[in-house]
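User: Second chain of the day. Same drill as before.
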Amino acid sequence: MKKGQLSKNIADHRTATGPLLEVEDLKTHFRTDLGMVRAVDGVSFTLDRGKTIGIVGESGSGKTILSRSVMGLLPSRNVVREGRVAFEGQEIGDLAPPAMREIWGTEMAMIFQDPMTSLNPVMKIGRQITESLKYHLHMSKSDARHTAVSLLTSVGIPEPTRRLDEYPHQLSGGMRQRVTIAIALACGPTILFADEPTTALDVTVQAQILDLLQDQQRDRNMSMVLVTHDLGVVAGRTDDIAVMYAGKIVEKAPTTALFSNVRMPYTEALLQSIPKLENKSHTRLQVIAGRPPDLIHPPKGCRFSPRCPYAQDRCREEEPPLQEAETPGHLFACWYPVGTPEGADALARNQAALAGIRASNGAASTPTTATATPTTATPTTSTPAEA
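Assistant: Same format as last time:
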């Protein structure tokens, strides 16, 4: 590809409109000695060009596996993947790795979670950036190096020419993350998967990285999938949010609708666990009781029911389907939604039952008054050490 083709690709992406990615009933299961792990279990969503969707959930909820499943970055053995993944209307879910290599980098790219492990520690930064430019865009060595300098400049790295000849360990954590972003953006992808892009960075650098991604997305009209465990990260930076739990989407909505009108108790619990500035110092943080379920043998009914303060008998027997809320595009999976009379009644019943149990336990542990005739005891003399 001739010099200047990269900017032409970006310009084409900037003017294009319409749906870009469609995922329907995607399942990714892993065979293990203990059984089949249902890491992603029937996920569907659509992403339009130039839009951002946030995938939110605890560790182990299937967020990263979902991203890797869409991109086809899965092990070659002991994996079962089903469902439909369409990019620009073309089915890519069944493409072999050689065909996917034509899509990786130029159409889809990923910012991996930990730059220290995703960057090659024995390869200079310049080579790691120019590698994809030479392979996908057929640039000459000099053109690729010039483009690499421009990329490092665009992601805010000082002295970019010097940095090309340095190794990852010579850079700070924030600069390494910026390098991984430069590598992901090198070939002008239309979709960027950002997998926990601010992990292990301090708060100031986190904001800089998120602002950088937002600026690059706007300049290139990219679509972005932002994967995180923190709802605070996606607030104000995404168009839609999908909340995942135990391999399934349990709530999906436009960002403003989700924060203003939560329906799924798990989403409410995630919001309540965010530290609040108005709280006094040393205020105990709210946590979600219990642990995520075993994905080999998930619980019957709603998978969140063992940890849910709203759970009733129906929740433990029947799995709730995704149903639409009052706001268009707002879907949730719950029999007793937050903010509804049914949900309030379920929560009140559980709180009353818990209060009764605590009162009963308290009464049982209260010592009884002895009625025996007291006896006169002979006092003993204590030494200063014993006293």
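The chain has 14 helices and twelve strands.

User: Great, on to the next one.
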